[in-house]
UniProtKB/TrEMBL annotation:
SMART domains in UniProt: HTH_ARSR (SM00418)
Domain of life of the organism encoding this protein: Bacteria
Protein name per its UniProtKB record: Metalloregulator ArsR/SmtB family transcription factor
InterPro entries assigned to the protein according to its UniProt record, in alphabetical order: ArsR-like_HTH, HTH_ArsR_DNA-bd_dom, HTH_Metal-responsive_Reg, WH-like_DNA-bd_sf, WH_DNA-bd_sf
Listed Gene3D superfamilies: Winged helix-like DNA-binding domain superfamily/Winged helix DNA-binding domain
Residues of the HTH arsR-type domain: 8-102
Length: 114
């Protein structure tokens, strides 16, 4: 049995690179995992993730720029949700992936595996 998958395009590559960039920061990952459960206000996200409101604002701007979250106005406030219904299941699948990580590898911003 052969499984047909679409050929990767420049658009696919760019989209996956944006998704990878979003996942490269622990705060952004926390935001995405929280929003996969339910929409939230930035202040609630900041409080639950233990970051300042300024950090939350910057990270939400990044995720909006990557096309992964969207802001929805509600009166004078904005709440956030995942921008596409496919993102939550994709995150769920990624959580099912188990990787062996060498102790001490990738301890900082730079990977030293090679």
């Amino acid at each position: 049995m052969t499984i047909s998958t679409p050929a990767a395009t420049v658009t696919h590559t760019a989209a996956l690179a944006r998704f990878g960039h979003a996942l490269s920061d622990a705060t952004r990952v926390g935001i995405l995992l929280t929003l996969r459960e339910a929409p939230a206000f930035p202040t609630d996200l900041a409080d639950s993730l233990g970051v300042s409101r300024q950090v939350m604002s910057n990270q939400l701007a990044c995720l909006r720029g990557c096309g992964l979250v969207e802001a929805i106005p509600e009166g004078r406030r904005m709440w956030y949700r995942l921008a596409d219904r496919h993102i939550a299941p994709a995150l769920d699948e990624l959580l099912r992936v188990t990787l062996f990580v060498e102790p001490g590898c990738c301890a900082g911003e730079e990977c030293h595996c090679a």
